[in-house]
Amino acid sequence: MTSTIKNSLVTLGSIFFLFLVWKILSLVIGAEIILPAPETTMRDLVNAVRSAAFWQSVEATVYRGLAGFLVSCLAGAVTGFLAGFNSVVFWALQPFMTVIRTTPVMSFILLALIWFRTELVPIFVSFLIAFPIIFDNVVQGIKNVDRQLVEMARLFRVKPWRILFELYIPSILPFLAAGTSSAMGLTWKVIIAAEILSQPTFGIGTQMQNARIYLETARILSWTVVIVFISFVFESILATVERKLKTWGE
């Protein structure tokens, strides 16, 4: 049995155990409004998938998540690159990074509700949460470069663009990949929280808040399954990219 098959079986076993515990707890509690059974939640999910509002909400949430994530990656990579090579830029940005890291997410959401229209709130908040992660990883990637190799390359008059692409970029990319993976996981959590409070016309967070108002616990859990699946898909894609980049970096 290969390690891949073994790992897949272990994962499936863990998922089965999770559903088993869920089922047992639902039977012990005996109240659908508190904890509906797994089959009730799955049935609700199947019914929801058949509606146009379901796909509009999924599309809107995925769009906001990717928009905030991509903007944070671009801004974090550019500023991290500048800060990694210039200590003045690095120390000039530290107060801003400290403020972003230490400010509660809820504070950002509440401020964004005042500053922006509802559709932009999740994008803005997800950008702020992911941006410092990308920034830090790019800076660490630059600092991880062997300085002796850089000095040797300069001693032998290697062209600057070759030093950049053959020493710095291979060092930065694995750190950048790890940062994007962490940022992506946080992005979906922040997006949903922001949608719950900002209530855009379409969005998974909006649907979850509506379900809470009407005490539709099964609907809340079915939407939770959807967002976990979305997060799993995108993190799997990033994990594949990360493995390839690490191979290049080595």
Describe this structure in words.
Helix 2 (38-49) crosses helix 10 (217-249), helix 3 (52-85) packs antiparallel against helix 8 (160-198) and helix 5 crosses helix 6. Helices cover 86% and strands 0% of the residues. The model has no long low-confidence stretch (mean pLDDT 86). The chain has 250 residues and is an all-alpha fold. The protein has helices at 3-29, 38-49, 52-85, 87-102, 105-115, 121-143, 147-155, 160-198, 204-213, 217-249. It has ten helices and no strands. The chain has a single domain (51-249), classed as MetI-like (MetI-like fold, Orthogonal Bundle), CATH 1.10.3720.10.
Low confidence ranges: none
| Helix/strand class | mainly alpha
The CATH topology turns out to be MetI-like fold
Average pLDDT for all residues:
86
Q: How many strands, what sense, and barrel or not for the largest sheet?
A: none
The figure for the number of domains is 1
CATH architecture: Orthogonal Bundle
Q: What is the level 1 CATH name? A: Mainly Alpha
Q: Helix and strand succession? A: HHHHHHHHHH
CA(first)-CA(last) distance: 29 Å
The CATH homologous superfamily is named MetI-like
Rg of Cα set: 22 Å
Oligomer: single chain
Protein name: Binding-protein-dependent transport systems inner membrane component
Membrane topology: Multi-pass membrane protein
Subcellular location: Cell membrane
InterPro entries: MetI-like, MetI-like_sf
